[in-house]
Here is the input.
Amino acid sequence: MSTTALAEKLESIVGERFVLRRESDLLVYNSDGLPGYRRMPRLAVFPGNREQAIAVVRALAADGIPYVPRGAGTGLSGGALADDVVLLGLHRLKRIISIDIENLRAVVEPGVVNLALNRMVAPLGLIYAPDPSSEAACTIGGNVAENAGGPHCLKYGVTLNHVVSINAILPDGEIVTLGDPEGETGGYDLRGAFIGSEGCFGVALDVTVRLTRRPQAIRTMLADFTSVDDAAHVSSAIIASGIVPAALEFMDGPTIRVVESSVYAAGYPADAAAVLLIEVDGIEAGVDADRDTIQRICLEGGARQVKVARNDAERLKLWQGRKKAFGAMGRMAPHLVVQDAVIPRTRLAEILARIGAIAAENRVVVCNVFHAGDGNLHPNIPYNADNADEAERVHRAMGQIMKACVDAGGSITGEHGVGLDKIGYIELIFSPDSLAAMCKLREVFDPDRRANPGKVVPIHSCQEWRGTPASRAAEIQHTAGVS
Amino acid sequence: MTSMVTSQTPLETIIDAADAGTPLRISGRGHWMDAGRASPATRILSMANHTGVVDYVPGDLTITVRSGTTLAELDRITRAERQWLPLDPFGSRDGTIGATIATGSFGPLAHGFGRARDLVLGLEFVTGDGKVVRGGGRVVKNVAGFDLVRLVTGSWGTLGVITEATLRLYAISSEPVTMTLNLPDGVKGISQRIGPILGGGVAPYAVEIVDAALAARLGLPAKTQVLVRIGGNSAAMAAQRDFLAALGGAHELEADVWGKLGLVEDAEAGEMPPIVIRFSTLPGRIVDLWTNLQRSGIPIPGVMMHATPSLGIVRCILPGSSSLDAVESLVGTVSGATRLYERLPSSLWDSMSQSVTDVRISQRIKRAFDPGNILNPGILGPLN
Here is the structure.
């Protein structure tokens, strides 16, 4: 079908204004929050309600047209983009359909912004716990697609743990309910399979999420260290102590200094080698004891001081610096590679030292800002992509960092998803048979592989496996930065 | 005739079965063999000897074990490090972690720590076509690849034979304490009693309502009551004790009440295993559901009930000798609740329970992972 004919067909559903076909208009949609990847859709379509979304998916199914669902485009894995597809933007489906205080549930459309839901339920003494750093812009539909996390997922769990059920439209146009909004389901956990499927299994039309009562008391601390190694060991020691902090975040010196030189300055000590932002919450009587224990562990572990936020304003300021750190890095260089890997929590100091060595070897600056409590690293490298030599060094350093994390028994992504960015690494952690099983699961939902084509599992894994060709094995090693 | 193969390495058994088209009934230590629908499989693949720790670094609060490892053994290993797996499915701790995950089982601790699906970080399993597949990983946060862990957890062995599991552990900061409070009769009275407990004044590990008959079986006064298990640091414990005491009539119980609760069904098993039906609804309707079931259950001799109010779940345990009329009368009086049958006499399955794999996607998943339909065939219902 010609692009013109397709555009007219989609315009008949959503209106002319909500279909983009000019290249200059589509440029906005050719990348996500990780601008190193560019893929140009042939069209973008923005349904304004559930009925239109259903009609668009069915129209695409009727003509066998590949598409990529997209929320706010804040993803950090090059996930919501592909060449020559229809980009299906869902941000206009932004109704909060219901809030059920008694049952701690909300039903929302996929385009509802994470923070908008939290603002809506805050006066009721409730929170929606998953809080990715992009919470001010990212959508619940995108959170479901990526199984998004956030700082407070250390205690409260990721999106998966907070979604009760999903009404979704599959790529062939069938509408299904995954999970049960009111009770238990027997049989397979299709809800669980759908969450984190990166748009490859279909489009959520509405999501029933679980709300959480705001804890009785919160204590937020900032511990500063003159040694990265000390901060890493203290992170591991806090986890090993048995306290489950609501959040345990790590920022290294380069990150601290760029945050402090930006409009997001939070009062972090600019001469520190690292800071830990630690939050405990729960019933009033218990949090002070946990705070005291954590203070003691920090000070015994080499912290210069532990500052405790005295009120909500101080707490929010401490958090602002952390949540806006990626944005502040824009001051350092025109481009930024954001990495997302997970390691066992006892290996933190060792891997941070290895990352430091890799940075030195490749003459790049790594800014570490990450979720230390669950071992979810974000080593980020600001650089100039137009400098081919620098870009090559950055690419090599990232591959080596990823290899170090995998060798430590870790994972290639903790919360950003695979997208395009990690697809070259996935064969480092999953066997051909495991990837083939994932392909089979995908084909149950999307036999034609039209929904977000080319993501999560490499296409060659979906063929009958006959062993790793020597050329492919070399390619995997190269991607991982192994010479 | 039934035959059994006990396998250290189940792969060859499954490949042979796949080649021959021989259906397999997957077993841990056999505690669930009378649960679920009857399967025509006569060859039993026992994972009971596939045991042991693969990897345990206490500082990471994760453990990887082979699937035949019992819950009791997991308790022993983790307690030595002052840690625990807060997963307490009903039944003996002699059951295996593989069976617990395969059946998606959980108990009262799901209130505070989530269900099996929330505590499993990674799985290795062998599919019906003899492929060794891994999903998830050994770290506590991971979104790499499609989520095969959630898919296989609770799939009753129909998609793959679980061989290894990585689990999230929690540290024991202090020994949990259990308090009990009597519950009055009637919707209003129960709601007024439960509301504050669930409303944030305490942060319990478990909140479980038990009826008078079950309370008596636990060695408690034969009254409907709510058991509250609390934990945390000493200041938090003291505050929670005070809070519960202020509600009136609270007193502390021996910790083994939870172990007794888990064993009620095993102890009941004689010639006829009990019938266990799980009703679920929205948490806000739990008291209505409870009172309805109490009313309709009273005429059934020997019936016992307990509920996890925050999850909206009521479990009814009926003597295995209960008549079809009794079961139907219990089920028939409840509307607006989902029913799952954990254990039914094989003669009742077809009349009582719909297939749970009758949706198109589930049927296709089953065929994709077990193309010859050799793994626990029929246990979740027939394939169309």
